[in-house]
């Protein structure tokens, strides 16, 4: 019988339902959903599968345990009682980071120090050594203290999972790949969909649409820190990558249409589409939104400027008016637009059929969904 491990995946607020479906699809069990994160059970192989396959998770953490801690002694003893040696070998580095909210232990540097000391004491007792070289693989310990309850994790991802490996460069206000993947899921993109982004920026939305439609695992083009851990067989990573390659639906008829009024953005998208390996499926052009004429059946997705950084507010509002005149959303031409402007619908000229609150970085946005 295989060992059951508790995992945790943070995600963008508002995408919990999307990530839940993804986790169930790859075999995660006993899901617990809270704001911005989902915990679930899986075997050791799940570390590789989740990192490679999950499109909307920010990272994959192993949840080592939770305990009450309103004093440094309780924090120390709680960490010391966890089976850190299951994953951290005698030569591995184990840096500590974390955060605390609504708790008596509020000093992050002090908590880091206590967690580190407890980890050292635990591993000293297991390995019988007093000095740790920390020259091996990196096993980052993360702590989250919320209302005096400490939860301790190990990070298996390393760099955040939004770093797919295809965006070599970006424009001034790129949308994160994980958020883009969530929008694409909410837009009901399928294998035979035609998807257009008339404000493509660096191409993230259209690339994530292609990945979704063609079932391309988002983590295929990158590595993960836990690949160097002795506790996870290296063969499992190569086997899960091979399984993901075999799952690519090359026969699906997806097409993407990307355009932008900015020639730099169009060129940038063309380069990133090529790096992503989906260039044959996507056409890229320099086109003004006023000239955009969606064909019947096309799903339009876009992330227009919000009037902060890229354009002045009045310019953004004028742009939203032009979008409303050009897009004409309907049942045959559904539109999914993420925007931070609270009066977007007024300037766009049509009330959305549905809205969902999402965060683009720290910026509260709405996903305006038009499909009727």
TrEMBL record:
PROSITE patterns, from UniProt? UPF0020
User: Where in this chain does the record put each THUMP domain?
Assistant: 59-156
* Keyword Transferase in record: yes
KW Transferase (keyword) present: yes
Q: InterPro entries recorded for this chain?
A: RlmKL-like_Mtase, RlmKL-like_Mtase_CS, RlmL_1st, SAM-dependent_MTases_sf, THUMP_dom
Record keywords: Methyltransferase, Transferase
Q: Which residues form a coiled coil?
A: none
- Entry-linked Pfam families: RlmL_1st, THUMP, UPF0020
- GO molecular function annotations of the record: RNA binding; rRNA (guanine-N2-)-methyltransferase activity; rRNA (guanine-N7-)-methyltransferase activity
Q: What name does UniProt use for this protein?
A: Class I SAM-dependent RNA methyltransferase
Record organism: Candidatus Faeciplasma pullistercoris
Its lineage opens with: Bacteria, Bacillati, Bacillota, Clostridia, Eubacteriales
């Amino acid at each position: 019988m295989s060992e059951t491990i508790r995992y945790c995946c943070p995600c963008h607020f508002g995408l919990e339902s999307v990530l839940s479906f993804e986790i169930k699809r790859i075999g995660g069990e006993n899901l617990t959903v809270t704001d911005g994160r989902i915990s679930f059970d899986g075997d050791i192989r799940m570390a590789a599968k989740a990192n490679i396959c999950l499109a909307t998770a920010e990272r994959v953490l192993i949840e080592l345990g939770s305990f009450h801690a309103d004093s440094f002694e309780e924090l120390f003893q709680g960490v010391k009682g966890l089976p850190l040696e299951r994953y951290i070998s005698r030569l591995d580095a184990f840096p500590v980071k974390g955060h605390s909210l609504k708790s008596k232990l509020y000093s992050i540097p002090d908590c880091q120090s206590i967690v580190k000391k407890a980890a050292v004491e635990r591993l000293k007792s297991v390995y019988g050594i007093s000095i740790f070289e920390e020259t091996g693989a990196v096993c980052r310990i993360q702590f989250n203290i919320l209302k005096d309850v400490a939860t301790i994790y190990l990070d298996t991802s390393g760099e955040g999972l939004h770093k797919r490996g295809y965006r070599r460069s970006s424009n001034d206000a790129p949308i994160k790949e994980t958020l883009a993947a969530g929008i694409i899921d909410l837009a009901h993109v399928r294998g035979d969909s035609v998807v257009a982004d008339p404000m493509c920026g660096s191409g993230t939305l259209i690339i994530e649409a292609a990945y979704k439609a063609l079932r391309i695992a988002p983590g295929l083009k990158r590595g993960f820190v836990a690949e160097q851990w002795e506790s996870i067989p290296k063969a499992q990573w190569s086997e899960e990558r091979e399984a993901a390659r075999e799952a690519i639906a090359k026969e699906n008829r997806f097409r993407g249409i990307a355009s932008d009024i900015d020639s730099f953005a169009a060129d940038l998208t063309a380069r990133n589409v090529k790096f992503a390996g989906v260039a044959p499926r996507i056409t890229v052009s320099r086109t003004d939104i006023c000239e955009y004429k969606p064909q019947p059946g096309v799903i339009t997705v876009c992330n227009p400027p919000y009037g902060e950084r890229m354009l002045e507010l009045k310019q953004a509002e004028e742009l939203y008016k032009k979008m409303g005149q050009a897009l004409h959303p309907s049942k045959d031409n559904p539109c999914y637009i993420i925007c931070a402007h609270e009066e977007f619908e007024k300037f766009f000229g049509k009330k959305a059929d549905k809205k969902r609150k999402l965060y683009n970085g720290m910026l509260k946005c709405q996903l305006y969904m038009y499909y009727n």
